[in-house]
Amino acid sequence: MLTETIKAHRAVAGTYGAPRIRADLREIDGLPVGRRRVARLMREAGLQGVHRRTGRASLTRQDRRPTAAPGGIARKPIRVYQTGATPQRKGQ
């Protein structure tokens, strides 16, 4: 079983991990093997799949300088006063 796992791993240039190696062994060779068994055999043999997502930088670059909105809209803050049971806005 170990030799088949090593052959399958070398056949794909060492890029596949345990789930894909298991799928290849089951589909191509017809071997009834589980993912955990393949993972254990790969660990024992020192084989590892390729991790493509680790250390990948974000493609979006943020602008670190805050910019004001164009046009400079000046707004008055809305003041709400509590008078009795119903809140009312100033000027009503």
Structure notes:
The chain contains 3 helices and 2 strands; from the N terminus they run H-H-H-E-E. Helices cover 36% and strands 9% of the residues. It is mostly helical and 92 residues long.
- The ordered H/E elements are HHHEE
What is the assembly state of the chains in this entry? Answer: single chain
pLDDT < 50 stretches: none
The largest sheet, given as strand count, sense and whether it forms a barrel, is: 2 strands, antiparallel
Biggest β-sheet: strands ordered side by side in the sheet: 1-2
Number of separate strands: 2
What is the terminal-to-terminal distance? 84 Å
Helix tally equals: 3
Helix content: 25-40%
* Shape by Cα distribution: elongated
| Radius of gyration, taken over Cα atoms and rounded to an integer in Å | 31 Å
Give the overall pLDDT as a whole number.
Answer: 76
Structural class: mainly alpha
Strand content: 5-15%
